[in-house]
């Protein structure tokens, strides 16, 4: 069985307080994107068993971690503690860049939970899958609910695991063009949080999104930009480049090194590879 874990961007991200457990409370809006990895699971219960019950093969990237550290394997191991699962072969093909603030690893884990639940008839509810996903990463639960073919934002609080879907249809980005730029630099979550001074924003990101998109530049902020741009001024250059090419709004996504720009019309860049790395241009259409 095959599935397609999707990416996301953060429309605003504010670190509002430091918790007693060492984590941080945030306010952010997740928005799913039609940029996907490919995840395939093959039941190996009737074949010679591999050394491990979940045998993983990763393609599409040179950035490989130890197999048991991969969130896909961790998702399998977590469910296997509570539900009977056969030995499986997993093929993960990566298209979502790593350490990019696009949620690739978290999405892979969440979609693994969804796939195992469906393929092996575990009978888990959406709520139960979200509870498992939240144990693997703060934003994993979002990807249990996400649907990149009909993208809708979700307001997240806590450490990112408390999800509040918008009650009314939100179509501000329908028909807009999104440009994703990730230069060949990476930002770890630990590094990003090390430079943060928590504080409440002047305007909550959910409220900012309800205002005309032309006002976002002044009201919708990502707190990680202040410290990360000092360490990696190239990212500030990317943001300015997007604005100079006509973006209505541009920002860093999450705590990673992707800068995105939102455009009214399809942008055509004279130098698409100006910053190297990853560049993608997407037409946002909720009815695609």
Structure description:
The protein is of the alpha+beta class. It is built from 9 helices and 12 strands. Strand 2 and strand 3 form a beta hairpin. The longest helix is centred in the middle third of the chain and has 16 residues. The two termini are 23 Å apart. The model has no long low-confidence stretch (mean pLDDT 91).
Helical residue percent band: 25-40%
Q: Spans of 5+ residues with little confidence (pLDDT < 50)? A: none
Oligomer designation: single chain
Could you give the order of the helices and strands? EEEEEHEHHHEEEHHHHHEEE
Instruction: Walk across the major sheet and give the strand order.
Output: 1-4-6-5
Which class of secondary structure composition applies to the elements?
Answer: alpha+beta
**What amount of the residues lies in strands?**
25-35%
Q: What does this entry show, briefly?
A:
With 288 residues, the chain is of the alpha+beta class. The chain is 26% helix and 26% strand.
What descriptors fit this protein?
4-stranded antiparallel sheet, alpha+beta, 4-stranded mixed sheet
